[in-house]
Amino acid sequence: MPHRVASFFKASTNSLETQVLNLKKKNATRRKDSPNRTRARERASGSAERVSTYAGSVEDDSEDSAPPYTPRAEVAPPARKMMERTQSYDSDKHKDHHHHRLSFPGIHLLRSSSSKDGLFGSSAPATLDWKLESPPIVFYGDADNSSGALVSGQLYVDVKRDEGIEFESFEATLNVHVVQKRPYVPHCHECANQYTELKKWVFLERPLLLAKGRHPFPFSILLEGHLPASMDGQLVSIAYEFKAEAIPKSDSSPHPIRLEKTLDVKRSLPEQETPHHSVRVFPPTNIKASVHYPQAIHPIGNNTLSLRLDGLAKHNLKPNTIEYWKLKKLTWRLEETAKAIAPACAKHTPKEPKDGSTPETPPPKKGLPRSDTRVIGEKTLFSGWKSNYGSVSDSVVEIELDYFLSKHSKYNCNTKSRDGTEVAHQLMVEMVVSQEWAPMAKPNLVTQTGVGRILRMHFQTVLTERAGLGISWDNEAPPVYQDVPPSPPSYCEEMRLGAEGIEDVIEPLDAVLAGPGPVRRSTDGRSSVSTG
C-alpha cells in the first residue's frame, strides 16, 4: 500500500510538470496566432488535459509500478475528435478569410434617378418646370368682401433631344384638396378626401412637334375671395394642388412627363388702428379690470396687453379695518378653436325616408360636425406688476404683458368658409387674488384671511397674416413714370415754324441727289433742277 501512494505522488508530479511545459508552449504560440484560432485551441486542449489527467490518476491507482505519465500519448477519443474538428474549422476559416468586393450596379442607377432630371435621370427626353410671375397669393378681407387674388405664371417644356419630341396632349389643372382628419366613416378614402377642380388648361388642341429648346406656355386664374386659405389643422387640411402633364407619342417617349406643385394661399383680415378697450367687473367684489389689447395679432411678433385693476381695498367701519385683494398669480393663454363638417361620400350617404321628413323624424345628416380646441401660447407670471395700496380709494395694480404664439406651435389663421370650416382664437387671462386685512391705524400689520378668488377673462382675438402692401388686385393702379406727364405734350403757337423758315433750314432732297447746279423753285414749294 505505501508503494502505491508513493508512485501516485510521483506520477502526479510528473504530470503537473508536463502540463506547465505545455502551457508555456501554448502561450508562446498564442501570441502569433489569431484570436479566433487561439480560443478554439484553448477549448480543445483544456478538455483533453482534463480527461487525460483523470485517466492517468486511475491507471496509477490500479498498477503497482507505472512509467511516468505523458498526456500527449493518452488523449481520450472524444477529446481527440474535438481537437481534429476544431483544427479543420480553423483551417477552413483561414482559407475563407480573404475579403471579396461586391458591386451592385442597381445602386448607381438609383443614385442617378434621384437627380433633378426626374425619373429618366440625365437622359430624360424632356422636363417640365414653372415660374410664378404674380405676387404672393393673399386674399384681402373676409370671405364675403374679398375680391380674390390673381395667379399667373409660365409653364416651361424643356426638350433635350436634337430631333425634337412630338406631344399628343399637354394639360394642367388646379384643384382644391380637402383632407378630413376625422372623416364621416373611418378608413374610407372617399370620405376623407374631397377634390374641387377650379380650372383646367388645355395647351395643345392637337399633336405638336416641339423642337429642342425651352418652350413657354402661359397660364392665369382669378381665385375667388370666398375660397378658403391653405391650412393644416387637427380636423382639416386644405391645399391648392397644381398638376401638369405632357404626354408624348409612344415612339418619342413611353412615359408621360408630369409636374406637381402646391400653391400657398393666405388671407389677411383688416386691422383696427386703435387698440380695443374692455372693462370687466367681478361681483361680489368691487374689483374692476380695464384692458387695452389689439384685436388682430400676427403669428410672428409680440403683442402687448395693458391691464389695470381697481377697487382692491375696502374700509370696514365697525371693526375699523382695511380689506385688501392682492394679486398672486397671472396666467395668459391663447386658444385656437376649429370647427368642421365631415361630409359623407356617395357610398356612405344616408338615405332619406320614403315618406319624407317630419318634425318628429328630421332628415338624416349628410355630415358630422367636428370641433377641436388646443393651446398655441401660454405663460404664467408671479411678478412683474406695479401695485399701490397706499389708500383705500387709490389701490390699483397695473401690468403690461406681452403675449405671443409658442415657438413650435402649429397654428392656423382665422377663417370661415362656405363648407363649414371655421377657425377662431381667443385670449384667456386668469388672475388669482387672495384677501388680506389690517387695522386702519397700523396698515403694515397684514393678516391673511385664507380667502382667495380666481378672476377669468376671455377676449376674442383675430389671428391673421400680415397684409404687406395691403392692396388687392382690383385696387392696383397702372404704373406712373416720373418724367412722363399724365396727358400728351402741348405745342405753343410761337414755337411753330412757318413755311418760309422750313425752306431756309431744310435742304431739298432732290438737290442733293442731282449734284451741283442751279435750283429753280416753284410757287407751290417744289424745286426742280436744270441741267442745261
Automatic annotation (TrEMBL):
InterPro entries from the UniProt entry: Arrestin-like_C, Arrestin_domain-protein, LDB19_N
Pfam families: LDB19
A GO cellular component entry from the record: cytosol
Molecular functions per Gene Ontology: protein-macromolecule adaptor activity; ubiquitin protein ligase binding
Region entry Disordered, spans: 20-99, 344-373
Listed Basic and acidic residues bias regions: 30-44
GO biological process: ubiquitin-dependent endocytosis
Residue ranges constituting the LDB19 N-terminal domain according to the UniProt record: 177-349
Superkingdom of origin: Eukaryota
Name this polypeptide is given: Protein LDB19
